[in-house]
Amino acid sequence: MAPAVKPIPLNRAIAPFFVGVDLGGTSTKIGLVDDLGRPVCQPQEFPTAVEDVPEQLVARVAEVINQMIQTSGLESTEIARVGLGCPGILDLHTGVMVNPTNFPGWGGFPIREALADRSGMPVVMANDASAAAYGELWIGSGRGFRSLVLLTLGTGVGCGAIIGDVIIEGEHGHGTECGHILIDPSDTAPVCSCGQRGHLEAFASATAVVRRAREKIAAGEAPLLAEKVSNGEKLSPLLLAKLAEAGDQPSLDLILETARYLGLGIVTLLHTFDPSGLLLGGAMTFGGDKSPVGRRFLERIREEVRRRAFAALANKVAIRFAALGGDAGFIGAAGIARLHHRRYR
Ligand SMILES: [Zn+2]
Question: What integer is the mean pLDDT of 41-70?
């Protein structure tokens, strides 16, 4: 996939420079940005796996960072900080991964210190969802906002929040788990990935959308979808978007129903945070701004919010798609490293 943000030539960049690392369960992305958040070279991405040994992965990350600095024509002394975005529950005070669900067995690993030792540079650790939110606030579709909430729609529903320039990390390293706010208190509500019933993620993640689509197929209410799936196509939000785009009403209904559930969750987020903006990112945006279906999805969310939130909040908040795609994580991690550098240098 082409990078969301094009690198600029080094002679136009403004020092100091920051490395951003977005450590993920399936891949790790690393980039190098200037003081304005502009990448100065192509980001590097490599697959990561649950069976990776933490020390080896850190060594690989350090190697890629050092290679990237060299090939971009910089000296390592010109790098002020490395920002490291990590998944799961983190102890940000000690730099330790506490309960990384994507990396079982890594609990207790002092990843911040390990990367600092290997790379020879100071490392700032952040929650990966907070990093993505900060990336959007810094140079993405939340640029100019003082506060925003980013919901990332994928297998689950992730969330990062920055309020009044403060990154919400929480007392216990959970960040903001807004995918798990309750939108249905009934005992028969669908079960979330966390095991509880009625959470937003159980309605608005890709997993939930596929489950509802399967139910619709079983009830005989989505004949075209049923036909595509029986012909071997993968039942996914992407397929729904494709069929909805071609005029299939059941597929569009599933997408707009998802928007309504998201609207319910977003109302609570607006009443809790009163942010300048609420952004929707991740893999499941049904084509985003570029597609009529994506735009209807977004409009349906806004409609539900207008119907249920305080009018003053609903009228002022900007609800839009995120802009940086898969680059938000590393750019935001670099941005958080920059905040740290400006505060403590
Ligand atoms: Zn949950």
Answer: 94
Comparing CA positions, the residue from 90, 97, 170, 169 lying closest to residue 133 is: 169
Determine the distance separating the centroid of ligand 1 and the alpha carbon of 184, expressed in angstroms.
12
Distance between Cα 191 and ligand 1 center (Å):
8
Instruction: Note whether 319 and 277 are within 8 A (CB).
Output: yes
Query: Which tokens is 179 given?
Result: 């995918």
CA of 69 to the centre of ligand 1 (A): 40
Question: In angstroms, what is the span from residue 299 Cα to ligand 1's centroid?
Answer: 26
CA atoms within 13 A on the CB side of 48: 27
pLDDT in tens, 66-112: 999 999 999 999 999 999 999 888 999 999 999 877 788 889 999 99
Distance, in Å, from the CA atom of 203 to the CA atom of 157, rounded to the nearest integer, reads: 10
Of the options 3.30.420.40, 3.40.1160.10, 3.40.250.10, 3.40.50.2000, the CATH number for the domain spanning 10-137+326-344: 3.30.420.40
Ligand 1: centre distance to CA 188 (Å) = 15
